[in-house]
């Protein structure tokens, strides 16, 4: 599935106030779901000695899917195409890589 296809299809499942003019709700949801990913990873580290089982991998996949859903809604609320967002990010990262500035410190 391509990003824009996911973005379009996911829109059919939106149930939040003022959909189409409410970027706050999906941004808060994105932060919440990202926290759930972090929590799953924390528990793998704490409870499972860092061992990633098939079950834990599926839990992470499920939470990442929720993150992706909210990313799609944020993009839609801002009238952005996920394909364009992804392409722009790859162009930025490729440029940094070519210039040797891909170091994790937000170099431009």
Q: Report the count of strand segments.
A: 0
Helix content: 55-70%
User: Shape, please?
Assistant: globular
End-to-end CA span: 30 Å
Secondary-structure element pattern, one letter each = HHHH
Descriptive report:
- The structure is a single chain.
- This protein has 108 residues and is mainly α.
- Helix content is 69%, strand content 0%.
- It has helices at residues 3-11, 24-47, 54-77, 82-99.
- Helix 1 packs across helix 3 and helix 2 runs antiparallel to helix 3.
- It is globular.
- It starts with a helix and ends in a 9-residue tail after the last helix.
Structure characteristics:
mainly alpha, 4 helices
Summarize the structure.
The protein is mostly helical.
List the helices and strands and how they pair.
Elements: H1 3-11, H2 24-47, H3 54-77, H4 82-99
Helix pairs in contact: 1-3, 2-3
């Amino acid at each position: 599935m391509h990003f824009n296809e996911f973005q379009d299809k996911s829109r059919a499942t939106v149930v939040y106030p003022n959909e189409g003019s409410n970027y706050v709700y999906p941004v808060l949801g994105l932060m919440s779901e990202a926290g759930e990913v972090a929590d799953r990873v924390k528990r793998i580290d704490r409870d499972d000695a860092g061992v990633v089982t098939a079950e834990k991998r599926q839990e992470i996949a499920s939470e990442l899917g929720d993150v992706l859903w909210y990313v799609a809604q944020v993009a839609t609320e801002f009238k952005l195409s996920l394909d364009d967002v992804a392409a722009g990010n790859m162009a930025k990262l490729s440029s940094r890589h070519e210039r040797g500035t891909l170091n994790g410190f937000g170099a431009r």
